[in-house]
Amino acid sequence: MGKRKRVVADQRKEANKTKYFAKLNDCPTSPRKMRQVADLVRGMDVYKALSVLKFNTREASGRLEKLLKSAIANYEAKTGSRPDDDTLIVKEVFVDSGFQLKRLRTAPQGRGYRIRKRSNHITLIVDTKSLDKKN
Fold first, then answer.
1. Residue 95 forms beta bridges with which residues?
2. Can you give the pTM of this predicted structure?
3. Where are the domains of the chain?
């Protein structure tokens, strides 16, 4: 690794020490379906978002709920304190496309239709309200 790359990597590591996030890679749900659930909780208080995800009927909400609990646990581990009811919010949720499994479904007259089984990568960042107002 060159000097410039090392410097940039060290800066990124230092910035990540003050961020509270959780990542889920290769989640076997289409990115569009996951984005629809992520849009529900973006900007909410974490405990309100947990209740919204718990009672949502979509399959993707269960995976996002588990990821949000992980982000809260990461916050507790880094700060050493439990979040209050109103201090922690879901700051950002990224849903990026992952790999695609390409399959064939048989079709009439000797043809085959392509099926793309999509996956995604999710990054969920939580932050305190006081820091969010300063930025």
1. 122
2. 0.86
3. 21-134
